[in-house]
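Lecture 7, part 2: worked example. A protein chain together with calcium ion.
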Amino acid sequence: MTLASIILAAGEGTRMRSKLPKVLHPVAGKPMIRYAQEAVANLVDVPPVLVVGHGAEAVKAAVGDGADYALQAQQLGTGHAVLMAKPLLLGKADLILVTYGDMPLLRGETLEKLVQLHKQSGGPVTMTSFIGDEARGFGRVVRAESGHVTAIVEQADATPEQLAIREYNVGAYCFSGDWLWSALGEIPVSPKGEYYLTDLVGLAVTAGFALESLVLDDPDEAIGLNTRVHLAEAEKVMRKRINESWMLAGVTILDPATTYIEADVRIGVDSLILPNTTLRGQTVIGEDCEIGPDTILIDTQVGDHVQLLASVLEQAQVADHVTMGPYCHLRKGAILDEGVHLGNFGEVKDSYLGPGTKMGHFSYIGNAKIGRDVNIGAGTITCNYDGERKNLTEIGDEVFIGSDTMLVAPLKIGDRSVTGAGSVVTHDVPEDTLVIGVPAKEVRKLEKNDQ
Ligand code: UD1
Ligand code: CA
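Predicted complex, written out as C-alpha cells:
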C-alpha cells in the first residue's frame, strides 16, 4: 500500500507572538518543521506534502527539496489545509498520514505504529492520543461507554464535562486516501469559522465506523507548541533526548542538566563534556576530548584529544591535541593546527597558527599566518586594522615574539627571528634577525642556538 504524508504548517502561530512563523522557531537549534519532515521521511513512498501559507517562502527555504508544497493562502482551519494537498496526492496514495508542523517531539517510530494500527483497524481514520495532566489547548477525545472513540472536541467548543476529559488529541492521523478526499467536503464550518480536521472523526463514527486511537506511552511526544511556554518545555525534553543519545553512544556528560547540545552536533567516543557547556550549529568534536566547563562552541570543528576550558569558539577549526583556556575566544576563521596551546585570555580571528605554536597569555591575533613552533609572548597584539583595511601579518617557523610586542600589519617576520619585549614592529623582519625598540630596529643577525 502506498503511503503519503501531509504536514500542516500554514498557520501564523498567533499565540507565539512572534514575527517568525511558528514552525520556524528552533528547538535544539533546528527549525521545528524539520523534525516533522524527518519523522515521516523514512516512512513514506512519495515526498511529504507540506502545506504552507503564513511565511510560505521562509518555511520552504527551511525544508528545501525535502518536501513538495501546497499553498493554503487563507488559514481556514486544519481540515481546509489538508484539502489544499488533494491535487498533489489524489490517486497517488492508499494511505495518508497527516501531522502538524508544531510537534517536533513526535517520533517516526510512533507514526509507523499508527500506520500499522490503521491497517489492522477497519476504520477510515486512525488517530493518536495521550493521557495527561496538562491540556495545552488540546482537543479532548470523547469515547462511548463501549470504549470506542466518538469525537474530538476542540477546547474552545467543549462543554465543562468535556473539558474535564484527560485524554487529548495528539494531532497525528492515518487516513484511507479515498475516504479522506471525499469526507473533507463534508466538514461543517465551526463556530470560529474554521474547518476542523478533527471533525472527520465524528463524521466517520456517524457513518458507522468503529475507530481506533494509538495511545502514546510517552506523552512528551505530544507536546505541541502553541506558546513560548510550550517551546521551553519541548526544548527541555529534546535536550534530554539528545544528551541521552550521546551518552549511549559513548560520550560522558558530567551534568546533563547544564549541557546544551543542538540537534546537528556530532561528538566522538570517550569525549568528556563538562558542566555549563553549549554546543551549537554544525559543531563536530572528535574522540577523547575534554570540553568545558563553561564553554560555548558554535559551528566549530574540533579534532581528537583536545582540551577546551571556559572558552568561546565560533566558526573555528581546532586540530588534534590542542589545549586552550581558560577564557579564550576563537572567532570566525581561526584555525589552530596540531598541538597549539592557548593559555588564558587569547583571542584569534581569521588566522592560522601552525603546529606546536604557543600563545600563553593575553594576546590578540587577527588576520595572521603563523608558522610552526612559534612562541607568542604575553600581551602580543597584531595591529591588523589601520582604520580602513584589515592587513596581514605573516610569521615564519620557530619565531620568538617577545612579551608585549605590537605587530603593525602588513608585516612579515622571517623564520627563527626574535622581537624584544615591548617592541613595536612596523617593518618586515628578515630570517634569523633580532629586532627591538619602538619602532623596532634590527640589532644583529642571530647565530644558531642564539635565542
Ligand atoms: C490542533 C487540533 C487539536 C489537537 C492539537 C494538538 C484541530 C482543529 N485541532 O489544535 O485537536 O489537540 O492540534 O497539537 O486540528 N494549520 C494550517 N492551516 C490552518 C490552521 C492550522 O496549516 O488553517 C496548521 C498550523 O500551522 C499548525 C497545525 O496546523 O502547524 C495545527 O494548528 P494549530 O492552530 O496549532 O491547532 P491547535 O489549536 O493546536
Ligand atoms: Ca498546535
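The radius of gyration is 30 Å. The first strand starts at residue 3 and ends at 9. Keep this in mind for problem set question 3.
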